Amino acid sequence: MKLISSFTIFLLLxxxxxLQFPTEANAQSLDAKIDSLLESTFTxxxxxxxxxxxxxxxPIYRKAFGLANLELKVPMNPENVFEIGSMxxxxxxxxxxMLMEQGKxxxxxxxxxxxxxxxxxxxxxxxxxxxxxxxxxxxxxxxxSLRAIEKQDLTPTELIDFFKNEEMDFDPGEEYKYNNxxxxxxxxxxxxxxxxxYADFVxxxxxxxxxxxxxxxxxxxxxxxxxxxxxxxxxEYANKNYISLSLPYSSxxxxxxxxxxxxxxxAIKNNLLLKPETTAKVxxxxxxxxGDKIQYGYGWNIKSLEGxxxxxHGGSIFGFKSMGVYLPEEDIYAIGLSNCDCNSPxxxxxxxxxxxxxx
Length: 359
Known about the structure:
This protein is α+β, with helices and mostly antiparallel strands. The chain is built from ten helices and 13 strands.
């Protein structure tokens, strides 16, 4: 009997081991697949990137590739800080919605409520139109004259003055056209309504509240711990071009890390900054005047990946590219930050999210 009992215990232990082993093996297999994908893009002696994948808010993959600084041959590490470009728009949109919840503005407010002299040409341009890229206002980044001011430090009103007299591309609500001017105006509205600068509002109401301690409005002069430097590739690698960070402003001037961006995604998912009914507005797939869907909410693209809902947004600014993907049904978040605008993480981040779905 003792022999049978001991043998039975042995079998149970073996069963427990082999039941656990496939899970560990799958995790190792996923790591190996992601490593192989990223190592084929980011070489050890070139600009690099950091990627993170989380399921249910818990990182399952977090690695750095390549170099954070080519001149000094400093390896990239997962704590590196990147300019995130247009992923800034998520923070701008949520800031507007926070002020809406405070009763300080409404989504159907016309922009002339905040900028009385804005030339709307008799059209009704609302905060909602700005958030959804359906305002028809000319995007200043498409203007050839931008080169004349790209190195100048402008106030938000000076930047708005730069583009406000341009002809509109279409009537409000008639079309969807990605628009940096719209998000500049939203940043200025935040300043008018809150009494803070855009940078201070985001710092106090988002970064500090969520303990996103490595995130901030970008700066060329400030010494920023763990900053990754940005590059272009024109045959050989070159240092990024200089542009005044007053120009991307609330459409693209924030910096962050993969860890802080995971905190951000968790905060939105768990309604830490907005009421659930307001968060639902963020991820609504809005329509044009004719009823056509635009595949955009407030600061996020509303798409699908392998048949599952997908909320995503990328960013591009001199020397940097970024991409974040969130699959709400699977609760998978994937984020990629790159320090060369020659290496877009967009497709890679989607592919990594697909791999995590398979897991």
